[in-house]
């Protein structure tokens, strides 16, 4: 296993990484109060039915990866290579105004999960952010992606906010609320 920067040559095979999300649990969000006095609480619960989401790499995310890998944009793109092909990637862009490294996507091929590759990539991203003297690393997950939330939490990310309407006006009903995560570095 080798962790290395993503190259332009890798772009052809990156979409082959099977990023399927499979989970029988979700993070239940409970909101109390209204307006400025509202609060929220999150609790892991069994899902009504097992989630199996193909989680394909979106065109926008692929474009961001391409820009970073070719040097057109500032950011970080790392791959875990096994037998000359990437089986896991993490890519993130830098927000200079906020001095943060925002993880756009982290995916480990379905056949290679639970081997520490995602953890290693996250720790590499945190180390790079520290080296660049950034103030934080950020990421986003959905409440129905319990494995991603557990990974971020294990790697020191703190849950710092929610958005109940990021994808639609019915995210809360669909149990697909966006969660914002941060690792403060300063």
Largest sheet: 7 strands, mixed
CATH-wise, what's the superfamily? Gcn5-related N-acetyltransferase (GNAT)
| CATH architectural name | 3-Layer(aba) Sandwich
Q: Please bin the fraction of helical residues.
A: 10-25%
Oligomer: single chain
Strand order across the largest sheet: 1-4-5-6-7-9-8
Secondary-structure-derived class? alpha+beta
User: What's the CATH first level?
Assistant: Alpha Beta
β-strand number: 9
In short, what is this structure?
The chain has 186 residues and is α+β, with helices and mostly antiparallel strands.
3D architecture notes:
- This protein is an alpha+beta fold and 186 residues long.
- The chain has four helices and nine strands.
- The protein has a seven-stranded mixed beta sheet with strand order 1-4-5-6-7-9-8, with helices on both faces. A two-stranded antiparallel sheet has the order 2-3.
- The radius of gyration is 17 Å and the shape is globular.
Notable features of this structure?
186 residues, alpha+beta, Aminopeptidase, seven-stranded mixed β-sheet, 9 strands
Tell me the layout of helices and strands.
Elements lengths: L1 E4 L5 H4 L6 E12 L6 E15 L5 H11 L5 E8 L2 E11 L4 E9 L8 H15 L4 E7 L3 H9 L3 E6 L14 E7 L2
Parallel strand pairs: 6-7
Antiparallel strand pairs: 1-4, 2-3, 4-5, 5-6, 7-9, 8-9
